[in-house]
């Protein structure tokens, strides 16, 4: 009743060309844009909220429950799910890591060679394995390569992310964006045969992708490398990098201290104190985690992480004696063969996303201390227990070697250091390579659709032992799947209510003073800007129907417009939140938000010209 009354009131206020159905869809789009941009809710939750609202408001959105849930059965969603599993299978064999080590051997101490190797390995691999897992795999490889070669990781990690995006334009399976765009194009082609749209072939736009990759690589090797800052020191010392010296202190427990006889947990475990006991040193012997139940004795030295104010308060109240503190990582853990301090990046799908360190019990699960917290370019060195963790946040973690091994093996984390004893199924490498080749070849020769080929590849990986059955569900980034399933009906609503046609006509009006190629360029820029603040997948869902309608209005080639939107959404360089791989390098590279704008904006502008010109040359624009 309320909605009906509201709609009746609005109906008399809008122009005849704009229906109330359109206004309702526009309102939902505006809501989704605000939620995506602010991250008030996780993006996958936002997508599900929008999907539910589309079904609840069916009289105006024209989305039935069957259409609202159609995203879960979409070939695009199933294909992305299968490709994520296949990428995990390749990861289990260690083949990408092996290529990374060869890359390190070639590059040595030359920054130019390191950068060239990073780009030349990442790009082609990202064309055949979903580019998001590729970056997750290569972050520790490239970070170690930089430190060993005395180069700042900041000079290599952003190019790693950008190269993965550029490589993702080489084939239809390079990114989830391409797969989704292909499915939307096929759907529009079925509904409006006059548009001439169809699902993308495996290598249909590879020739343009190669040009985009080469131009992007040349930019990164020449202009980009000069614009990149050295945020992280070349020397591999995390203590100095995070400027933690003022937050670490060694104190001695005197004979009259009330702490004597208490356990570490009883004495200093109060969360209100914001104190972590990193080490207990007794007569020259060092004790690491777990320390909670360790009893404190007279003359024990406690190594604490806390701020100066809290340290002074605890020293006064307990009579502790300050005896200095570590100034570098080697002081903190002298003589350690393996590192006991690493950066841990939080990827999408991690159980920590949306949690805090306090609510997640991260410390207890991994016997780990968090020394610092890097979120969206800001380093927090104290009072970070209750900060909500987001995708791309980086934790500086101290833990025993066995705990770090568990972190490395857990797909909830990206540990920005490669451990030599990682357990890979190298004997399964030939099977994994053959399966990926088959998944690519069968659709390329029109033997099977991509979705069938990809699912067949998953089955083959299980049967050959590349993957174990219990690893299937762990391999899927379920937030990506729910995001796709949630936003796909929004594109359907745009189309069915005529909202896409209305927006398309509005943009098409620019054809009165712009040629068709100019309108195409406008779509490329608009998609790039939109992707900079919301999900790339949401961008193609919103923009492809509008682009196709605009092309139809001006008599232009609809395929050219769809391709421009796809490439723009797949190459979002200007912000760290524009593309998931940017978030993976944000923390380990020590970048600020403005770093992405400074390096990414010229590249995005350059590629807007190159891509639009390439589309016009290969496929024509028409009109």
TrEMBL record:
Membrane topology: Multi-pass membrane protein
Gene Ontology cellular-component annotations: plasma membrane
Any one GO MF annotation of this record: monoatomic cation transmembrane transporter activity
Family matches, as InterPro entries: Cit_transptr-like_dom, DASS-Related_Transporters, RCK_C, RCK_C_sf
Transmembrane annotation, as ranges: 12-36, 43-60, 72-91, 156-180, 200-221, 431-464, 476-494, 506-527, 558-579, 599-621
Subcellular location: Membrane
The organism's place on the tree of life at top rank: Archaea
UniProt keyword annotations, A-Z: Membrane, Repeat, Transmembrane, Transmembrane helix, Transport
Protein name as it appears in the record: Sodium-dependent dicarboxylate transporter SdcS
GO BP of this protein: potassium ion transport
Keyword Cell division included in the entry's annotation: no
Ranges where the RCK C-terminal domain occurs: 236-320, 329-413
Pfam families according to UniProt: CitMHS (PF03600), TrkA_C (PF02080)
SUPFAM superfamilies noted in UniProt: TrkA C-terminal domain-like
Source organism (scientific name): Haloferax massiliensis
UniProt entry tagged with the keyword Transferase: no
Broad class of where this protein is predominantly found: membrane
């Amino acid at each position: 009743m309320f909605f009906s009354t509201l709609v009746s009131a609005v109906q008399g206020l809008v122009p005849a060309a704009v229906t109330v159905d359109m206004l309702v869809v526009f309102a939902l789009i505006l809501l989704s844009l605000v939620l995506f941009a602010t991250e008030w809710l996780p993006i996958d939750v936002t997508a599900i909220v929008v999907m539910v609202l589309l079904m609840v408001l069916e009289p105006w959105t024209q989305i039935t429950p069957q259409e609202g849930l159609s995203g879960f059965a979409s070939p695009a969603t199933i294909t992305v799910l299968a490709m994520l599993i296949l990428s995990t299978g390749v990861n289990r064999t260690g083949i990408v890591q092996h290529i990374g080590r060869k890359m390190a051997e070639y590059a040595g101490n030359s920054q130019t060679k390191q950068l060239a190797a990073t780009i030349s390995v990442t790009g082609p691999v990202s064309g055949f394995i979903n580019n998001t897992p590729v970056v997750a795999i290569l972050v520790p490889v490239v970070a170690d390569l930089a430190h060993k070669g005395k180069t700042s990781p900041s000079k290599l990690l952003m190019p790693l992310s950008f190269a993965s995006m550029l490589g993702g334009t080489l084939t239809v399976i390079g990114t989830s964006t391409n797969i989704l765009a292909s499915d939307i194009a096929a759907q529009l082609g079925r509904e409006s045969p006059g548009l001439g749209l169809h699902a993308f072939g495996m290598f249909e736009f590879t020739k343009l992708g190669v040009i985009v990759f080469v131009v992007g690589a040349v930019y990164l090797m020449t202009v980009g490398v000069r614009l990149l800052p050295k945020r992280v020191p070349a020397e591999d010392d995390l203590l100095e990098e995070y400027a933690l010296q003022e937050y670490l202190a060694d104190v001695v427990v005197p004979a009259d201290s009330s702490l004597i006889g208490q356990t570490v947990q009883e004495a200093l475990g109060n969360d209100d104190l914001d104190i972590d006991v990193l080490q207990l040193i007794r007569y020259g012997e060092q004790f690491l985690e777990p320390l909670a139940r360790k009893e404190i004795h007279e003359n024990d030295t406690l190594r604490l992480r806390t701020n100066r104010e809290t340290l002074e308060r605890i020293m006064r109240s307990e009579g502790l004696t300050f005896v200095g503190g570590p100034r570098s990582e080697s002081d903190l853990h002298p003589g350690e063969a393996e590192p006991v301090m690493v950066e841990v990046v939080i990827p999408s799908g991690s159980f920590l996303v949306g949690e805090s360190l306090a609510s997640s019990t991260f410390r207890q699960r991994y016997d780990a201390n968090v020394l610092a917290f890097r979120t969206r370019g800001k380093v927090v060195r104290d009072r970070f227990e209750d900060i909500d963790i987001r995708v791309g946040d980086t934790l500086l973690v101290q833990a025993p070697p066995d705990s770090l091994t568990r972190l490395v093996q857990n797909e909830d984390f990206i540990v920005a250091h490669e451990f030599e004893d990682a357990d890979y199924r190298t004997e399964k490498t030939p099977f994994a390579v053959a399966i990926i080749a088959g998944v690519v070849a069968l659709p390329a020769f029109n033997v099977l659709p991509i979705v069938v080929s990809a699912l067949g590849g998953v089955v083959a990986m299980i049967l050959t032992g590349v993957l174990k059955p219990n690893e299937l569900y762990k391999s899927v980034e379920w937030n990506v799947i729910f995001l796709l399933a949630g936003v796909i009906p929004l594109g359907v609503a745009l189309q069915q209510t005529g909202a896409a046609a209305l927006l398309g006509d509005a943009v098409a009006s620019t054809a009165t003073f712009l040629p068709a190629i100019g309108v195409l360029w406008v779509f490329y820029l608009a998609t790039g800007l939109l992707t900079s603040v919301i999900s790339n997948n949401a961008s193609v869902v919103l923009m492809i129907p509008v682009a196709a309608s605009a092309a139809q209005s001006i008599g232009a080639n609809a395929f050219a417009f769809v391709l421009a939107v796809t490439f723009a959404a797949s190459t979002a360089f200007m912000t760290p939140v524009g593309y998931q791989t940017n978030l993976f390098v944000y923390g380990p590279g020590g970048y600020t938000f403005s770093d992405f704008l400074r390096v990414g904006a010229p590249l995005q502008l350059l590629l807007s010209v190159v891509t639009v010109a390439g589309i016009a040359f290969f496929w024509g624009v028409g009109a």
